[in-house]
């Protein structure tokens, strides 16, 4: 199985350890993982702002870099959501449609495609609160949502449950958006920061030592708020826990 | 004083009372700055906390009601299907409604827009020599600037819904479609009543305040020349309208004076009586987390010796119906569930939107009235999708917000600074060489990365948040050193 590894721009630059953990984790399952070196971004900042025209060339580059794989995997729900649901500025050729269908967020890839049932190398004896990125939650459906009447499920929790020693902490408002929202975080800073602070308060109240998510972007925002608030909370990407990286 | 809560009696001047933050500044057709008003609301911490908690409580009660009903998702689908069917055959059902209402002895009028609506109502009032009007809550009349118009024409209008009455006395718009004064604390209401109803200064006991309101409003109700209601559902096969309230004030408004006028948006039509329970079961559960409103009032024909008029109002609805991406917003039953769940709305207050409709539904409705004025609203969202999933009629709200952002760009309403940044980002991110070159130019990624990631808004990012720690090398560099590069 040939996998294209998509490392979103902020992970590449600010959280390379997340990219490394994702790569190593996929390699543990004997997959042929390739990182196309000319990749940049999925086009989300532009198309999310309404500028589809400005996103077109970036989308075309994404398609060029990632065509020809069985699957493309990224440690980011929001970027994958973009590719799957909103990569529409470029012509929708069969190749593009196939790429959009076969681009997976790491958690759903492990859970739905590889159907991993154990992470024997991983141990995480800590109290952990899970944060689901909204794009992953309500777009990719990696977990049940509180707005709907549906049976509970959580793919990240199902995977983390296979890691020894982990203890889960429940949030008061598990589905509440943390206020990152891509360009929202800078264009609407006041509301964004308030939402982030409330999210951090909820995490503190849950008794968690660590917050984990399959999305570094939300956590970059939350961690920024937590550090400014002087909160004693650590943020770690789910790939690092599943890969057995020492906490 | 019987029934008083003991938390009230604090002498003024001892406790600092946080003044109510006012809504967005309206300057003609200039774009409303939602963020500016939201920031003031957030700075009023007591108000923001109270507002968030109240509305989150409604959302939780709604969840409890939902879980008690196994058929919830099926009902949502039915409601959506009925609305979609009706909107697809709107002309047919409107004519059927008109026919049946007329057969019931009701006068039916058609209003193209707000101005026509106001004029028609004024003519009806004038022809009866009516000078005083009581009315129940109606978002449509808010759309029409009805009270202001009537005040200018010598008609005295009294709102009979408590929250709406508070807002009227304070000369403010409703901040929420169901709970119009939800942004006000008890102290705020006490201050308004002290100013307008001569209540005891500093007494914010709810029982006392509501009794004073009742005593001052009742005579106006009893003496009114005419009564007005909105409409939740207009049933085509019977020609009846149905109004849902918790205070019974639609009945008071419609049944006390001899003349009843109902303003009805043309999207309120449902085909049959048997469609009604689908919506009745969803409405109050979604809105307030209560199984049903206290009153579900059916008005079918004028009562003996009385007269009943229905004004069917378009005011932009048929234009909206023709919008390929945005017509589903017409399915809205005005329950406000999207507002209660919206994390931006709860922290901003409804008046920050500076428009008739606030919150997620407002974000997608207001641009259809004036794209220029409301061009900032679609950006007051993280597009987290919670609104879409609480919506009892399954409006794809967050997808429409995305659609409106595109529309704003297409119609050249995007502020230049934003557009320029997106152009620059688009150029950089489409070129791997430029993109890579932007990274290693400095010792730390920190110095240059935010330039394209955060679009020169680094200062904005850092105002209340720490900037991410720079890493020693990018993943790209690590990969080059640790894996054999392949393409």
What does this structure look like?
The complex is a heterodimer of chains A (247) and B (487). In chain A, the strands form two sheets. Chain A has a four-stranded parallel sheet with strand order 2-1-3-4, with helices on both faces. A four-stranded parallel sheet of chain A has the order 6-5-7-8. Chain A has two domains: 2-113; 127-242, Rossmann fold (3-Layer(aba) Sandwich), CATH 3.40.50. By secondary structure, chain A is α/β, with parallel strands linked by helices. In chain A, α12 links the parallel β7 and β8 (234-237). Chain A is globular. In chain A, α11 (189-205) crosses α12. In chain A, 47% of the residues lie in helices and 12% in strands. The relative contact order of chain B is 0.13. In chain B, 49% of the residues lie in helices and 10% in strands. Residues 1-10 and 441-452 of chain B have low confidence and may be disordered. Chain B has three domains: 31-68 and 329-412, Fumarate Reductase Iron-sulfur Protein, Chain B, domain 2 (Orthogonal Bundle); 69-315, Rossmann fold (3-Layer(aba) Sandwich), CATH 3.40.50.10420; 416-482, no CATH class. In chain B, a hairpin with a 4-residue loop joins β5 (233-235) and β6 (240-245). Chain B is an alpha/beta fold. At the A-B interface, α1, α2, α3, α4 and α8 of A face α1, α2, α15, α17 and α18 of B.
């Amino acid at each position: 199985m040939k996998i294209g590894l998509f490392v979103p721009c902020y992970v590449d630059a600010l959280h390379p350890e997340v990219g490394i953990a994702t790569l190593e984790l996929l390699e543990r399952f004997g997959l042929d993982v390739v990182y196309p070196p000319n990749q940049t971004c999925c086009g989300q900042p532009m198309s999310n702002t309404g500028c589809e025209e400005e996103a077109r060339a970036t989308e075309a580059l994404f398609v060029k870099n990632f065509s020809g794989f069985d699957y493309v995997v990224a440690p980011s729900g929001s970027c994958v959501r973009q590719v799957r649901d909103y990569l529409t500025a470029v012509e929708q050729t069969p190749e593009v449609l196939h790429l959009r269908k076969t681009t997976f967020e790491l958690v759903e890839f492990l859970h739905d495609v590889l159907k991993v049932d154990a992470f024997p190398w991983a141990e995480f004896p800590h109290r952990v609160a899970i944060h689901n990125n909204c794009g992953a939650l309500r777009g990719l459906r990696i977990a049940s949502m509180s707005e709907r009447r549906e049976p509970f499920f959580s793919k990240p929790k199902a995977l983390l449950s296979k890691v020894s020693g982990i203890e889960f902490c429940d949030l008061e408002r598990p589905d509440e958006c943390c206020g990152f929202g891509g360009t929202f975080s800078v264009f609407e800073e006041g509301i964004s920061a308030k939402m982030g602070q409330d999210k951090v308060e909820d995490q503190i109240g849950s008794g968690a030592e660590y917050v984990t998510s399959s999305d570094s972007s939300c956590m970059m925002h939350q961690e920024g708020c937590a550090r400014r608030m002087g909160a004693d909370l650590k943020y770690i990407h789910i790939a690092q826990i599943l890969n057995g990286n020492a906490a | 004083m019987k029934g008083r809560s003991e938390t009230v009696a604090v002498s003024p001047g001892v406790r600092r009372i946080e003044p109510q933050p006012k809504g967005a500044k309206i300057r003609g057709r200039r774009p409303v700055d939602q963020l500016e008003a939201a920031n003031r609301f957030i700075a009023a911490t007591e108000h923001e906390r109270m507002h968030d908690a109240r509305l989150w409580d409604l959302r939780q009660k709604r969840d409890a009601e939902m879980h008690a009903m196994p058929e919830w998702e099926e009902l949502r689908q039915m409601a959506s299907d009925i609305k979609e069917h009706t909107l697809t055959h709107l002309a047919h059902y409107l004519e059927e409604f008109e026919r049946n209402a007329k057969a019931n002895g009701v006068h039916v009028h058609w209003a193209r827009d707000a101005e026509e609506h106001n004029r028609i109502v004024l003519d009806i009032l004038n022809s009866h020599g009516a000078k005083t009007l009581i009315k129940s809550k109606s978002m449509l009349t808010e759309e029409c600037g009805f009270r202001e118009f009537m005040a200018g024409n010598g008609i005295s209008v009294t709102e009979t819904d408590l929250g709406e009455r508070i807002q009227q006395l304070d000369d403010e718009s409703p901040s929420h479609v169901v709970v119009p004064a939800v942004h006000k604390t008890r102290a705020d209401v006490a201050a308004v009543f002290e100013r307008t109803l001569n209540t005891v200064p500093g007494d914010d006991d709810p029982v006392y305040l509501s009794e004073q309101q009742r005593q001052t409003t009742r005579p106006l109700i009893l003496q009114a020349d005419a009564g007005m209601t909105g409409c939740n559902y207009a049933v085509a096969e019977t020609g009846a309208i149905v109004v849902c309230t918790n205070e019974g004030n639609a009945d008071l408004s419609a049944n006390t004076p001899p003349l009843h006028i109902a303003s009805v948006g043309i999207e309120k039509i449902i085909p049959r009586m048997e469609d009604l329970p689908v919506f009745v079961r969803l409405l109050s559960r979604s809105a307030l987390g209560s199984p049903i409103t206290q009153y579900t009032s059916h008005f079918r024909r004028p009562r003996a010796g009385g007269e009943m008029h229905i004004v069917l109002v378009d005011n932009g609805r048929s234009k909206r119906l023709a919008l390929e991406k945005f017509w589903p917003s017409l399915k809205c039953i005005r329950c406000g569930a999207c507002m209660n769940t919206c994390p931006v709305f709860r922290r901003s207050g409804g008046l920050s939107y500076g428009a008739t409709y606030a919150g997620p539904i407002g974000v997608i409705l207001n641009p259809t009235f004036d794209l220029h004025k409301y061009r900032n609203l679609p950006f007051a969202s993280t597009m987290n999708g919670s609104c879409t999933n609480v919506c009892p009629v399954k409006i794809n709200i967050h997808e429409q917000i995305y659609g409106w952002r595109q529309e704003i760009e297409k119609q050249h309403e995007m502020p230049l600074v934003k557009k320029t940044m997106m152009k620059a980002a688009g150029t950089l991110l489409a070129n791997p060489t430029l993109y890579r070159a932007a990274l290693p130019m400095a010792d730390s990624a920190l110095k240059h990365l935010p330039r394209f990631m955060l679009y020169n808004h680094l200062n904005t990012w850092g105002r209340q948040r720490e900037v991410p720690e720079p890493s020693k090398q990018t993943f790209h560099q690590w990969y080059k050193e640790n894996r054999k590069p392949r393409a």
